[in-house]
Amino acid sequence: MDKRSLPAFIAISMGVFCLVADQTGVQVALPSISEFFNSDLPTTQWVLISYVLAISISLLPMGRLSDMVGHKKIYMVGFMLISTTTFVAGLAPSIIWLIVASFIRGVGSGMTQGTSMALVVAIFGRGKGGKALGSYISVVGLGSALGPLISGYILTSFNWRVLYYLLSGIGIVAMSSAALFVQSDRTPKFKVTGFKFDWVGAVLFTVGISCFLQGITWSPNLGYADIRIISALGISSISLIVFVFWEIYCNDPMMDLRLFKSRMFSSGIGSAFLYFMGTSTTFLFMPFYLQIALGYTPYQMGMFSGAGALTMAVVGIFAGQLSDKFGPNGFTTAGISISVAGLAILANLNMDSSWVHPLAGMVCCSFGLGTFYGPNNKIILASVPRNFHGVVSGFIHLARNSSTVISIAVGILVVTTFMSSMGFAPTLAGLSSDTDFPVLNSFVNGMRVGFIAFATILILALAVSLCGGTYEEIEVAD
């Protein structure tokens, strides 16, 4: 990256930081929002659920659209949408208004997430993909660490509306910086006449992924035998199966499934999906454990999370740079292995563990993520033509989001099933530091079983990663 490219990278980094700090900050603000509107927690959670759902259903269509009309164009429109609707969300007179605004915000975020990764790779150049993606995950780590701290300060000193106004302002600054410093893509001039986009595929994908995510999200509360869950997952299965066949035979597919013929691409996506499935439950269980079992305050819990996020940020930079020099395969293997060790540490927690024990496990998992993420994405993006970077970047984010949702649902199922086998109610609702010791102990033991199960999934991810063979920079026509 030369000196002329540095302002462009800073501009995109500001945007990525804004997106991550936005999501983590809103998570912190949910209790304040719930209290302000006098709404119950399940209703308030839809502020975040609708946002994540919109991101997931828009990643692939908007990624493909960005490949056709230019990554910068879609990135700019996405941030314009985010900034506008975030400001409108801050004016929300009701919780329903805020939920609808959050969904539209999610569409804008979906437009920027995939394109931001493609733009970063373009700034650094294809030969330095590891450095580019390592820097990308470092910015994500900083956003994850600072987002809750900034939000906590604003919520303590002001209120949740000020948080939304601030996020809107940061979005405008990020968009303006990208407009000034990021070069436009070398794509054919957009023409409305003759423009071909796979609308059928986009609709099938949207229906399939939204029903799937909703079915998985509702299942812990409603149960897998509930007719609503069966219907949602059934519609999802049918839509996604039809989507696959449509993409195979469509002349201009949204996602060219022939990419999966590449061993590098398939193993890269597969190992990433399994990796995030294996590690995502730590973000669900550890706050429960730290607060209700060990009695730490939310501020102290934020320090635990911040230490892990900063570890990921620092390691990501070095792992990305070194993967350009020595190849990414060894780093993906090391990253998964380190995360297995982290889950092994967490699987030995108990009701009287010292603070060092959970911190060591969380930092170890974050170290593994920082080592794995950039090199793994380097493998994936190096195996496809440049004119597919937008849709593939979106697909990478989609795989992460989907596996995270599945991981949380399966993790809750494992823990609640274990609690039920011990004779206690199979639910996490109502758990607090005042809950009877036997109930909390059954939760902690169930959590330990879950960590062992997910460590097994990470070992499978390691095997899938090794199936991709030795990394080779593939020369493909753009």
Keywords for this entry:
single chain, 478 residues, mainly alpha, Growth Hormone, Chain: A, 16 helices, 78% helix, 0% strand, globular
Commentary on this structure:
The structure is a single chain. With 478 residues, this protein is an all-alpha fold. Helix 5 (95-124) packs antiparallel against helix 6 (129-157). The longest helix has 33 residues, at 389-421. It has 16 helices and no strands. The chain folds into three domains: 1-183, Growth Hormone, Chain: A; 198-253; 255-472, MFS general substrate transporter like domains (Growth Hormone, Chain: A, Up-down Bundle).
Percent of residues in beta strands? under 5%
Number of separate domains: 3
Helix content: over 70%
Low-confidence stretches: none
CATH-derived architecture of the largest domain: Up-down Bundle
Q: Output the radius of gyration.
A: 22 Å
Structural class by SSE content = mainly alpha
CATH superfamily of the largest domain: MFS general substrate transporter like domains
- What is the terminal-to-terminal distance? 21 Å
- State the major sheet: none
CATH topology type of the largest domain:
Growth Hormone, Chain: A
Order of helices and strands: HHHHHHHHHHHHHHHH
Q: How many DSSP-defined strands?
A: 0
CATH class bucket of the largest domain:
Mainly Alpha
Number of helices: 16
**What is the mean pLDDT?**
84
Silhouette: globular
Would you kindly provide a brief summary of this structure?
This protein has 16 helices and no strands. The longest helix has 33 residues, at 389-421. It folds into three domains: 1-183, MFS general substrate transporter like domains (Growth Hormone, Chain: A), CATH 1.20.1250.20; 198-253; 255-472, Growth Hormone, Chain: A.
